[in-house]
């Protein structure tokens, strides 16, 4: 029987080949799809549905069957189906068994075997599980040996799990069945309709899903612990590995999820489209979270803690839940046609996620956190030589993530926030509702979205779109005014074009705030909404107002623009910082001072003097975190500059550590603030006294009132002790690794080992990194810890080799690997010679991937900034 089937299959294939048209196959054997190929395919293919059957047993491989149905407009050319590195055991095209024409990347279907109209393809295959966070990823828990699977498909990795037209504009329905061990859960876009016992296994059946782009579909499986909550508008479930279940606080997840679902139902005017809301905490995840329809995944490492969550951690959790939830409408219900629309997908979710966090949770200060964190990252990215427009072409799936950065997320979100103010909140909301209603279950474009907003506002947005979405760079805004007596007699806003050379001057709506000195505080005299555009905008409504000591032209952060304080305002900000009672304004003034350091206008040591005087008075949790972030960068710079400014560097770092310790001791009873200061103390400790004290705390020879050392904190201390090679630190590392054999413990041990100032350890890990001699999630940890700033001498031993081999590594390893490798292992040393070497490498390697070339260019620019900061320091 087997021989007869094989003979029939061979004859069918040979017969088909003999009569195949001479039309050439245009798709090359490349591991990506071009936009042109995708558009040509979607022009021919429609009404796609998948029937998927998976057999999962926890081993390294899985087997599956896919029945693919679709309509085809013509049979003039071959058609390809994406399937990555599988072993195909049976292929049937419209009832005819055939030998597959398969190159390990995609199946080529003979057009003579296809129909104009309905086609049905049956494919039986097996494939190894992925271990790099894409496709169907497999993870073995080191604690109990249990196997967990989860899928991740964005941008085009569904083909690593099943045969698929792997492009966003070929939406399809999915009918799933899964055979899995008895103790496993299986999670997908829909809720299972039945679970049939099969001895020591179960067969899960899922109903046909709504129409989804391939990257929005998901399947997760394993012995996950499950929590359920049916008290809200929609059924909610939460899943995590059994060995980490004790670290999960499900009520926080369910509280924020229910609040978000209620908010978005109301804001969008369309009920949540996927009936149930599942969230899964998964290990080894490449990103923060992923918006799979109805089955969202979250990175364990960012949302699991060994102590009660701080306010910052809860806010981060709420914000990411809201971000992924916004995608359920904007991204899953309505989806981009191609990957050039990914920025809008992410920008909108970032904007809406922050809005929902501010409106629907206790974190009503979410926009302040956004300003102090993500938005500053956008300003920095938009000021680099590698800045790019928000909307850019994406020629292939390999380029889909080239521009996924702070411009895509935070600048895009900031631009939408500004547009929300410019058009008016109700008008903006109406435009969004109309867009979702018109394009639900379809694909849409940027023009569709802007058109919906323009119609709601009854105004043309073509120039706005050009200026904001197709032109790069961030502009600068400064107030220019004069006073006669105690009254303003002239006032205008000066807009300057971007430092990167772009000449675009944009239209924005901002608030201008005037403040004057008081005995105990800076008083807000007036805030004035102003729409400005062009190089100069007069503000006649401020003529006659009291002459201010400080003008802030982007009060409450409506606009996306860098603020350059006029000289009088800058001096007031530096001397009166503690008297600013408005926390948002105080945050923005802190940022203005730090911007002065970044530009070389304010010496770093002068800034640090301001910090040491004012930060101990700061009671606002968010601002304390903002300023501490600038201190971390300052510490990095000071250590990078060595041996220059060595005496000052040692004094300043010791002052950072001792200030943090003192404030940790003074904030007993305020656990969030105390933990913030204690964590800062650990990370700033580099002097002998501080490191010795940390070792005593770790060993129980000293205590700190209000502080208990949970497992995460113990690893932070051990890493710091090993970083500075404190006596006995290596033994402490080995003992802790033996006591904590969890996944997080294994990764923390790698970080603490590789950060040691030991040339042999670093050489060993470099070989592992270059040879893929460890699982990628562990290699990522090693990369990010191998060369801390103060270990410049060790880094220089391999610097020339790393730079010389960059092109080869880039070519061999691919985008996922290089996203970690390039920022961590491209050499830097804060010297003019380093800048020259990096600029030469840019010239010598014109064929680097876009991602790696940008990293190289940005590091060269960062080195220039480090040299500038070093040279601007007062002696």
CATH topology of one domain, by name, is: Immunoglobulin-like
> What characteristic shape results from the CA principal axes?
globular
Instruction: Enumerate how many helices there are, as a single number.
Output: 28
Strand order of the largest sheet: 5-4-7-2-1-10-13-12
Structural category: alpha+beta
Q: What's the story with the biggest beta sheet?
A: 8 strands, mixed
Instruction: Report, as a whole number of angstroms, the end-to-end distance.
Output: 89 Å
- What is the class of one domain in the CATH system? Mainly Beta
- Uncertain segments are 2-25
Instruction: Write the CATH architecture name of one domain.
Output: Sandwich
Radius of gyration: 29 Å
CATH H level, superfamily name of one domain: tricorn interacting facor f3 domain
Mean pLDDT: 94
Beta-strand share of residues: 15-25%
EC number: 3.4.11.2
Pfam families: ERAP1_C, Peptidase_M1, Peptidase_M1_N
GO molecular function: alanyl aminopeptidase activity
Cofactor: Zn(2+)
């Amino acid at each position: 029987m087997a021989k007869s089937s094989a003979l029939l299959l061979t004859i069918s294939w040979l017969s088909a080949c003999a009569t195949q048209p001479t039309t050439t196959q245009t798709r090359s054997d490349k591991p990506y799809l071009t936009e042109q190929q995708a558009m040509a395919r979607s022009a021919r293919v429609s009404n796609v549905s998948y029937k998927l059957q998976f057999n999962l047993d926890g081993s390294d491989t899985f087997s599956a069957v896919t029945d693919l149905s679709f309509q085809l407009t013509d049979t003039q050319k071959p058609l390809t189906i994406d399937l990555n590195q599988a072993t195909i055991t049976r292929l049937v095209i419209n009832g005819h068994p055939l030998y597959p024409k398969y190159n390990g990347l995609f199946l080529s279907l003979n057009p003579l075997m296809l129909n104009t109209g309905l086609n049905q393809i049956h494919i039986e295959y097996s494939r190894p599980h992925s271990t790099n966070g894409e496709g169907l990823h497999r993870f073995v828990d080191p604690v109990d040996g249990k196997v967990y699977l989860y899928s991740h498909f964005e941008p085009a990795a569904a083909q690593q799990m099943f045969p698929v037209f792997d492009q966003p504009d070929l939406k399809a329905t999915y009918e799933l069945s899964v055979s899995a061990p008895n103790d496993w859960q299986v999670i997908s876009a829909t809720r299972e309709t039945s679970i049939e016992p099969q001895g020591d296994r179960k067969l899960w059946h899922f109903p046909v899903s709504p129409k989804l782009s391939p990257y929005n579909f998901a399947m997760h499986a394993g012995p996950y612990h499950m929590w359920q909550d049916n008290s809200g508008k929609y059924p909610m479930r939460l899943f995590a590995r059994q060995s980490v279940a004790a670290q999960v606080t499900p009520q926080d997840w369910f509280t924020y999820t229910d609040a978000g679902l209620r908010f978005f139902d109301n804001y969008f005017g369309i009920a949540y489209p996927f009936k149930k809301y599942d969230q899964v905490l998964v290990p080894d995840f490449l990103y923060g979270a992923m918006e799979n329809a109805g089955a969202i995944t979250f990175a364990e490492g960012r949302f699991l803690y060994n102590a009660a969550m701080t306010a910052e951690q809860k806010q981060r959790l709420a914000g990411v839940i809201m971000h992924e939830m916004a995608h359920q409408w904007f991204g899953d219900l309505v989806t981009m046609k191609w990957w050039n629309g990914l920025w809008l997908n992410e920008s909108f979710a970032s904007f809406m996620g922050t809005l929902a966090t501010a409106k629907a949770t206790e974190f009503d200060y979410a926009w302040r956190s956004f300003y102090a964190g993500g938005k500053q990252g956008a300003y920095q990215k938009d000021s680099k030589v590698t800045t790019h427009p928000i909307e850019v072409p994406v020629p292939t799936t390999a380029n889909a993530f080239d521009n996924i950065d702070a411009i895509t997320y935070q600048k895009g979100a900031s631009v939408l926030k500004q547009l929300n103010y410019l058009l008016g909140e109700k008008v903006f909301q109406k435009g969004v509702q109309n867009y979702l209603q018109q394009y639900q279950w379809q694909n849409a474009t940027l023009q569709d979205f802007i058109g919906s907003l323009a119609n709601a506002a009854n105004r043309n947005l073509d120039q706005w779109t050009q200026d904001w979405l197709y032109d790069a760079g961030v502009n600068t805004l400064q107030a220019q005014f004069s006073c006669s007596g105690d009254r303003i007699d002239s006032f205008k806003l000066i807009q300057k074009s971007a430092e990167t050379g772009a000449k675009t001057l944009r239209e924005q709506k901002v608030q201008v705030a005037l403040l004057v000195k008081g005995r105990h505080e800076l008083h807000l005299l007036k805030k004035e909404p102003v729409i400005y555009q062009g190089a100069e905008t007069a503000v006649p409504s401020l003529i006659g107002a009291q002459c201010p000591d400080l003008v802030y032209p982007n009060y409450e952060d409506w606009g996306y623009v860098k603020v350059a304080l006029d000289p009088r305002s800058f001096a007031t900000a530096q001397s009166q910082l503690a008297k600013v009672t408005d926390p948002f304004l105080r945050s923005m003034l802190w940022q203005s001072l730090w911007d002065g350091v970044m530009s070389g206008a304010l010496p770093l040591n002068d800034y640090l003097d301001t910090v040491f005087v004012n930060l101990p008075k700061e009671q606002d949790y968010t601002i304390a975190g903002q300023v501490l972030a600038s201190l971390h960068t300052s510490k990095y710079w000071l250590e990078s500059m060595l041996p220059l400014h060595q005496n000052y560097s040692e004094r300043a770092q010791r002052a950072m550590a001792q200030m943090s310790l003192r404030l940790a001791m003074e904030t007993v009873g305020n656990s969030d603030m105390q933990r913030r200061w204690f964590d800062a103390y650990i990370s700033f400790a580099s002097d002998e006294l501080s490191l010795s004290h940390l070792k005593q705390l770790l060993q129980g020879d000293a205590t700190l009132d209000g502080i208990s050392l949970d497992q995460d904190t113990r690893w932070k201390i051990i890493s710091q002790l090993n970083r500075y090679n404190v006596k006995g630190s290596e033994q402490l590392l080995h003992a802790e690794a033996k006591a904590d054999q969890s996944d997080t413990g294994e990764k923390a041990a790698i970080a603490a080992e590789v950060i040691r100032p030991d040339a042999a350890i670093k050489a060993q890990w470099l070989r592992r990194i270059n040879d893929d001699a460890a699982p990628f999630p562990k290699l990522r940890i090693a990369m990010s810890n191998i060369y801390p700033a103060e270990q410049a001498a060790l880094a220089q031993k391999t610097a020339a080799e790393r730079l010389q081999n960059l092109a080869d590594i880039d070519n061999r390893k691919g985008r996922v690997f290089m996203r970690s490798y390039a920022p961590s292992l491209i050499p830097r040393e804060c010297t003019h010679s380093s800048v020259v070497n990096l600029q030469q490498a840019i010239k010598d390697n014109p064929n680097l991937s876009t991602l790696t070339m940008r990293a190289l260019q940005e590091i060269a620019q960062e080195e220039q900034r480090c040299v500038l900061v070093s040279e601007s320091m007062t002696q």
